[in-house]
Amino acid sequence: MPNVGITGSPNVLISNSEYDTYLKCQRLHYYQYALGLYPRTLSRANHIGLLGHHVLEHYYRAMMNGAGRDDAFQAGMDQIILSYDHEDIDIVRVVSNRFMLYHERYQKDSFRVMGVEGVFSVPLDNGTTYPLTVDLLVEYTSGPWAGQYVAIDHKFRYDFFTPDELSMHIQTYKYIWALRKLGYPIKRSILNQLRYRDGVKDPDKLLKREILEPTETQLESIMSEHMAVSSEIETAKQQPVSWYGKHAHRRLNMRDCGHCYFRIPCRQELLGKDASATLANNYAPEDPSTFYRPYGY
Q: For the segment 57-82, what is each residue's pLDDT rounded down to a tens digit?
């Protein structure tokens, strides 16, 4: 049986999201992981992704608990109905439409649901621990994959991933590596894409599943780099927050900074101004009491 729940030291948990944030911009990493701040106002895309993940979680959790497809669909729709109390009707409309299409398209999936939003962690050789949250873990019951586990990651996208983007999508490769370490017979992952772009009528252009099968060399190279970067992050975390605030460097390019939630306080501090009022008014620690639970990786 797989070794579920193996954990390492909670002081050095470095997720793929934190790894990615650190490489993208150390200043962003400082705001999010040293100060622990999150924007009070999220984008439309974020709201669609949060509600979409929430609905699919309840859909598949109902299946895992023995519900048939129709009852599982109702479990998802119940969450959509509840969301009218706190989401814009536009967000609910988009997610509801995609969920109905999704249920119709994939209701004959030949797998058994083994885990929904499952949290795992694997100790690494460098003394850090890699935590991961897998949207959906299934075991195929028939076909060429019968008896094999597959990690499925839900992605709500404006457009599908391009082949070039897929070639650099390492998140689920790390899932495969970690789940193997925990004893799961797993060779591949699936990116489960649901497009929220308006004006598209063809279901084939709204739903798409991409199969990803990494090589052993890819897995070992990716995790070797993860350990190298996580060691850097651990070193930064061992310093006082005030020190990190002075040494967390900015990317300073429009590709990364143009859509960054922290660009205003970052720019203020770059100009030598006090950004404490901006940070206090526009950002807050993540609130676990909100309607959605945190969907992180």
A: 999 999 999 999 999 999 999 999 99
